[in-house]
Amino acid sequence: MKALVFIKPGLELISIAFALAKIGIVPVLIDAGIGMRNVLDCVRQAKPDIFIGIPKAFVLKICNHQVFDSVKFNFIDAGHCIFPSYISLQKIKDGDDSEGYTHPRDAEDLTFLLFTSGSTGAPKGVVYTPSIFQGQLATLRSTFSLTPDDVDMPIIPSLVIGTLCLGMRVVIPPINPLKPTSMDPKVIAKVVNDCGVTFSFGSPAVWGKIARFSVDHAINFPKMKHLLVAGAPSSATTLRLFRKIVPNGRFHTPLGATECTPITTISSDELDEAILSRQESGGGFCVGRPTRNHTIRMIGITDDDVPMISEAKVLSEGDIGEIIVKGPVVTKLYYENKLATRKAKIYESNGEVWHRTGDVGYFDDQGRIWFCGRKAHMCNSGDETYYSVKVEYCFSGLAGINRVALVNISLNGQKVLALCIEPTQRFMSPTARRTIVTDIVQVARRYRIPLRVIAFHARQFPVDKRHHAKIERHLLAKWVQDSLTRLRCNWAIYHVSMTNIAAR
């Protein structure tokens, strides 16, 4: 049986998830922050037998009753229940507190069902088994030397599963998972130091905000041993801030996904100015070497299925390809989704499974992996291919720019490159904008990036709902296209040739 759990992040959610797993019921965990449409799609895929939720979640269920028609048992997290067929969780809490039944499991049994964020496609249910959890625990333990003496503060609630299984204490921070960047960095910084947090994973959007506040107010985290920042590349400026706030520890920029994490990492011991300079010069974003017992390859970029590894074109050092991985943390299939499984998995003749991450990158001459962006975010101009992260990092250090995004648009019937700008100030004079455009054109010339359009976004970029860091480039591309077509003024649009600039 499967139980969909819609409880606010905290001790109760953790307790319920572990209790369900203990008695052989599969917890289904969906981030409410991925958006209502995606949440309902996940429910359709999961077909839960049990629904456990707060009263607001039951409003969602009642309003979309057809989506929840597989549910046979309802448990509401409220002291009193007005629905006679619903069971109050309070009654269970007040009941027998004996250890109870423990359901035996095989290594490949479905134990947890976790859903991807859907940031580059429809959300998919990832099958977690005891063997995957064991692989994750071993990888976390060997990579970061974690022990029961460590204290974790996860920004994403579902990440507590692994560290709790390692016997670590966990601090649940006062962060709204639906709006993580709305947190008060002063409060979070105090929690980190008051609770002696030694380990934390979060996105650059969250930890970048904490780092900026901390540096501005001369705060650091002397007990922090390992700060993991992932979900999207961090700017070189932000990486330098991380070094200041963990004086006795390390920060890391790992690579991973719901289907396989962590698969690479690099620490601040190795992230020196030479690497940062290479990143700012269009080298991509360094995510380090494979974690222990994991093998990574780059294969030729294709949208076709690759059933067997013998059919893949494995690339050499320096060649950009799709990143694939095999090892203990690699999940083997998506739940009830044969099409997605076929597209994402490659098999060895002995049955071992490679996962196609959908990320593109390359190996350098020291065995390090450089992330160049998502396969879905590659852009074309003429016969050349341009990779989002490689290009965007070239502009990230320019004055007046918070972040940029490279997108493809159609101009006069041709596919061209457009660079979207999120400025540091929402309201800018035309002179200030033209100064930024001039700087961008100079960088584009230096690195031979044939930009045709530069677009200033009026607000913050649209981002994914889980990390609040992954730029939703498809929305930006649509808005640029609409702005050019309908002459809308949400943007300040500049047409660019490599010899002159014309404002529109």
Distance between the termini: 59 Å
**CATH-defined architecture of one domain:** 2-Layer Sandwich
Broad shape: globular
Q: Main β-sheet, in a few words?
A: 8 strands, antiparallel
Number of strands: 27
Write the CATH homologous superfamily of one domain.
ANL, C-terminal domain
Going by helix content, strand content and strand pairing, the class is: alpha/beta
CATH topology of one domain: GMP Synthetase, Chain A, domain 3
Can you give the mean pLDDT?
92
* Number of contiguous helices: 14
The share of residues in helices is 25-40%
Detail the poorly predicted runs: 500-504
Short overview:
This protein has 504 residues and is an alpha/beta fold. Helices cover 29% and strands 26% of the residues.
What can you tell me about this protein's structure?
- There is one protein chain.
- The chain is of the alpha/beta class and 504 residues long.
- Among the domains are: 2-104, Rossmann fold (3-Layer(aba) Sandwich); 378-503, GMP Synthetase, Chain A, domain 3.
- 29% of the residues lie in helices and 26% in strands.
- Helix 8 crosses helix 9 and helix 10 (273-283) crosses helix 12 (388-395).
- The protein is globular.
- The N and C termini lie far apart (59 Å).
- The model is unreliable at 500-504 (pLDDT under 50).
